[in-house]
Amino acid sequence: MTIAGLLRTVLFHTAAACALLAQVPTADRIRALTADVARITGLEMRRAVPVETLSRAEWKRYVEREIQREVKPEELLADQTTLRLLGLVPRDFDLRQTTIDLLAEQAAAVYDHRRKRMLLLEDGSAGPLEDAILVHELAHALADQHYDMRRFLDKGARTGEQQAARLAVVEGQAMWVMLEWQLGRMGMGSVARNREALERMLPALGSMAAASYPVFGTAPLYLQETLLFPYTAGVLFQQAAVEKLGARAFRQVLERPPETTRQILHPEEWLAGKRYEAPPAPVPPKESDYRRVSSGILGEFDIRVLLKQYCGAEAAERLGTQWRGGSYELLEHRQTRRPALRWAIGFAEEAAALDFLDRYRAVLEAKSGQLRWKSVARGLLEGSNSDGDFRIEVRGASVGALEALQPRQPELRPAL
């Protein structure tokens, strides 16, 4: 992971803004704001940025076309099934339609890095944040002119986890530039020397989005956090890069991007080049009965959201920092076509793995229908639910799981 590949693939093209634009900005206005972005980032403008306006109906069609073009139906179904088996979305959840509804409801200014132009959703009333929105999108445009976002985002990430990290780089950088521009305009100094104010401001973004956008407010927590992560965690990552690297930060984060959500959440590990390997996941008892449908990384972001949803923010923070690698595979039973899941997460120490298993018992109890326990012991949870058989076990400093396995058939005894 991060699991929701659909959101991640489409999100950069449909980046949410917080206000509508009253009219198409003039060329002079675009040039002036671009000069401000170039001054902040050190990335000069190489060519003018074309601007195109969209009605709200055109905007929704744009979102639908991007999803249709970028996401194969089988990949979408695999993402949706994985999220459901982990308990991150409801059983009847429609990932495709919810993504369309989420992105279509939001007023937007978007830099489309494939067509190399700014897309603006035009409305009849002006908003005070218009220039700030344009600065945010122009930051994307200048980064694209120097580092080719098609290569950086579309081709450069081999896993969903890398994609999540790179998206946090580009959105976090644009957020940082926007805030730096706003503070400078108000004569309030620089974001680079005001981390405390930045950290105080970010938690409000989620509640503001929930209040402003009804679909976002009722979406599963995982989708809300997936949408917010590139902005909130990304801007703090950029702040750490600026504090350490100064003006070189804007180029460094694009030339040597982080590879995981952990490196976004812990920039010091990105700076130090720290990497973690996932522990091996357990194998189903009859491995040949299953085929692999999809696979990926279970990142720190993923387990944080899972624990936050079922166990609270304190458990998510405590165990999230202990993450040391993770992976998953979505399987399908060859005969029955039932999905199954195998995953593994490494932790800093065995005590953290045991702690996680205790928390995961609460996850199982909350997400399962028809739950039946076979064994609840130190380091082991085994039983069945409406998805099938499961076994989750601590192995040293890691936790390995098999979930939704084909239920074992009772042995047939010959008649006497």
Walk me through the structure.
The structure is a single chain. The chain has helices at residues 5-11, 27-41, 56-70, 73-86, 95-104, 130-147, 149-155, 160-185, 195-201, 203-212, 214-218, 221-245, 249-255, 261-265, 267-272, 300-311, 313-320, 350-367, and strands spanning 51-54, 109-112, 117-121, 290-296, 323-333, 339-347, 372-377, 380-385, 388-395, 398-405. The chain has 416 residues and is α+β, with helices and mostly antiparallel strands. The protein has two domains: 5-272, no CATH class; 287-405, Protein Transport Mog1p, Chain A, CATH 3.40.1000. The chain has a seven-stranded antiparallel beta sheet, with helices on one face. A three-stranded mixed beta sheet has the order 1-3-2. Helix 6 (130-147) packs across helix 8.
Write the layout of secondary structure elements.
Elements: H1 5-11, H2 27-41, E1 51-54, H3 56-70, H4 73-86, H5 95-104, E2 109-112, E3 117-121, H6 130-147, H7 149-155, H8 160-185, H9 195-201, H10 203-212, H11 214-218, H12 221-245, H13 249-255, H14 261-265, H15 267-272, E4 290-296, H16 300-311, H17 313-320, E5 323-333, E6 339-347, H18 350-367, E7 372-377, E8 380-385, E9 388-395, E10 398-405
Parallel strand pairs: 1-3
Antiparallel strand pairs: 2-3, 4-5, 5-6, 6-10, 7-8, 8-9, 9-10
